[in-house]
Specification:
six-stranded parallel sheet; alpha/beta
Length: 199
């Protein structure tokens, strides 16, 4: 089952733009029932999540984000950060250059899919940042509104029970369509609701 949890603005408590570490709390709630993978697709690195679970081997964290050599948070998000101690190998970062478009982005998603497949989680949490849109005022990637349907479809193909937590996305003129397209992409064809303009 796929669920979206919108979190109100103004609730940030870490360096990243996550909302009260909602995905971290969800992961902790799920852990008694099995292993959890968290994939952060926000433009900025999921540094709070990475640090929170850096030594917990039952949670796999991954992030696709702007290259921290030139983007916030600058000190986290490099490819050589793989987790600590007993959890080594349970973190994977995909820093990408400015202007990244869907084909490059999907290649990063596929590399994460391979890592997560080997980890074999019982649950998947997606930190759904939509500041990866080409018109986002603080992002730097070049994803188009229609690309999010394909992205959602890719995650759905993993066949892991999934929770989607909405995070970044600062162009309110396109945000709603991006979120809608992503969630529609995650749904099975027979599950699609009758929404005008989506046929």
């Amino acid at each position: 089952m796929n669920v979206q949890i919108p979190i109100p603005k103004g609730a940030d408590i870490t360096f990243e733009s996550c909302r009260v570490l909602d995905k971290g709390g969800a992961a902790e709630d799920l852990l008694p029932s099995g292993k959890v993978a968290i994939v952060d697709i926000d433009y900025h690195h999921g540094n709070g999540t990475q640090e929170f679970f850096a030594e917990i081997k039952s949670v796999f964290t991954a992030s696709i984000h702007g290259d921290p050599a030139v983007e916030y948070p600058y000190f986290w998000g490099y490819a050589d950060e793989i987790g600590n101690g007993q959890a080594a190998g349970t973190n994977h970062n995909e820093p990408l250059p400015k202007g990244t478009q869907l084909p490059e982005y999907l290649r990063a998603v596929n590399r994460i899919r391979d890592k997560i497949s080997a980890f074999d989680p019982d649950y998947l949490i997606i930190a759904g940042g939509f500041d990866t849109h080409r018109k986002d005022p603080i992002g730097g990637f070049s994803l188009r509104t229609e690309d999010y349907t394909r992205l959602g479809s890719e995650f759905a193909s993993w066949r892991i029970p999934t929770l989607v937590c909405q995070e970044g996305g600062y162009n309110t003129e396109v945000l709603g369509e991006c979120v809608k397209n992503f969630l529609l992409g995650m749904m099975e064809p027979g599950q699609l609701p009758d929404i005008p303009g989506t046929a």
